[in-house]
Write a structure and sequence with these properties.
The complex is a heterodimer of chains A (about 110) and B (about 110). Chain A has about 110 residues and is mainly β. Chain A is about 0% helix and about 60% strand. Chain A is built from no helices and eleven strands. In chain A, strands 2, 4, 5, 9, 10 and 11 form a six-stranded mixed sheet that branches. Chain B is built from no helices and eleven strands. In chain B, the strands form two sheets. In chain B, strands 2, 4, 5, 6, 9, 10 and 11 form a seven-stranded mixed sheet that branches. Chain B has a four-stranded antiparallel sheet with strand order 1-3-8-7, with no helix packed on it. Chain B is an all-beta fold and about 110 residues long. The relative contact order of chain B is 0.34. Chain B is globular. Classes of the chains: A mainly beta (about 110), B mainly beta (about 110). The interface of A and B includes residues 43 and 45 of A.
């Protein structure tokens, strides 16, 4: 059965801390792995990873994929209260339609 | 235009009502998706349209009826819903075969 597992499910940190969110997957015909940030409404796209070992970076956020060990991490440095959100990992797999299977998400709370 | 729009933002309906959710994008994407998201859960795929044809129906009850009148529009027709259908309904679009899906803000549906 195809699955995406995220850990931890929730995390509470203080501003300025660095956090690492984990995502492991087991899917047939892997195509890409995506990270989304969801606050109150729709998920907003952060990164799409297709190749192992190549870090994607955007400001204080970065992510990397390991296709051999079937996992990805999302790092956030110098966290701010505005980083508080649910971070969703999704894997695109299978046929040509771009099917996504989502993990349950990691709820990050950043305290002042 | 890099936005997916959804209307209405909120919808309250009775179990005998018929209503429709609408989604629109002008990014030239030929794949469009409906997801259902319950509180504290990840989005669950309902339907996928590829080149305006229904390509995936994830065993969704017939009280949900999707329609893709053209490459920019996606509708979800609702009839005889149950209270457990109350959820956030998200629309997304992407290029066919590419995992990066752009999500709309969602419609918060409450069935009384």
């Amino acid at each position: 059965e195809d699955k995406v597992v995220q850990s931890p499910l929730s995390l509470v940190v203080h501003e300025g801390d660095t956090v690492t969110l984990n995502c492991s997957y087991e899917v047939t015909n892997f195509r890409s792995l995506l990270w989304y940030k969801q606050e109150k409404k729709a998920p907003t796209f952060l990164f799409m990873l297709t190749s192992s070992g190549i870090e994607k970076k955007s400001g204080r956020l970065s992510s990397i994929l390991d296709k051999k060990e079937l996992f990805s991490i999302l790092n956030i440095t110098a966290t701010q209260t505005g980083d508080s959100a649910i971070y969703l990992c999704a894997v695109n797999y299978g046929g040509s339609q771009g099917n996504l299977i989502f993990g349950k998400g990691t709820k990050l709370s950043v305290k002042p | 235009d890099t936005e997916v729009t959804q209307t209405p933002k909120h919808l309250v309906m009775g179990m005998t009502n018929k209503k429709s959710l609408k989604c629109e994008q002008h990014m030239g994407h030929r794949a469009m998706y409906w997801y259902k998201q319950k509180a504290k859960k990840p989005p669950e795929l309902m339907f996928v349209y590829s080149y305006e044809k229904l390509s995936i129906n994830e065993s969704v009850p017939s009280r949900f009826s999707p329609e893709c009148p053209n490459s920019s529009l996606l509708n979800l027709h609702l009839h005889a819903l149950q209270p457990e259908d109350s959820a956030l309904y998200l629309c997304a679009s992407s290029q066919v075969g590419v995992g990066e899906q752009f999500f709309g803000p969602g419609t918060r549906l409450t069935v009384l």
